[in-house]
Amino acid sequence: MLRLVGVKENIAGQQARILIDRAKREAPNLNFQRAIIELIETVIVYKFPDIGRKEIEDMLGLNDLKNTKVYQEALKEGEDIGEKRGEKRGKQLGKQETKLAMAAKLLNLGMTVDQVAEITELEIEQVRQIASQD
After folding, report:
1. What does the domain layout of the chain look like in residue ranges?
2. For residues 19-31, average pLDDT
3. In percent, how much of the chain has pLDDT > 90?
4. Is the pLDDT of residue 47 over 60?
5. 56, 48 Cβ separation under 8 angstroms
6. What value does the mean pLDDT take over residues 56-63?
7. Dihedral sign, CA of 114, 118, 124, 130?
8. Sign of the C-alpha dihedral, residues 130, 76, 50, 11?
9. Burial letters for 91-122: b for 16+ Cβ neighbours within 10 Å, e otherwise?
């Protein structure tokens, strides 16, 4: 998963598909599988903020991306924020919320606060705050 965060954009889709296939084969249960796939989606959405749903679906080989929690949350938040503060501010807040969501998932997977802060580019204090909420 860490490699996906740091991999160059031109091979990120391929790496993400490999991880999704592995999660489908090796996850101990459906909930864990979904959590891993949502984390992969979160990383890809964060890594490619300017591409649309269809491109992400194609990149990941998923036909039902719009039914995933990550997509639904991002869509709802984008709509809510867009209505209140305008498209530009909404995108900024959406990126920040994506970072926060990704941080929470990485912490739940057992990563340290320092590792999560480095990956998400959040302040260590922000990550500590997320960790203390769990």
Report:
1. 2-133
2. 85
3. 11
4. yes
5. yes
6. 75
7. negative
8. positive
9. bebbeeebbbbbbbbbbeeebebeebbbbbeb
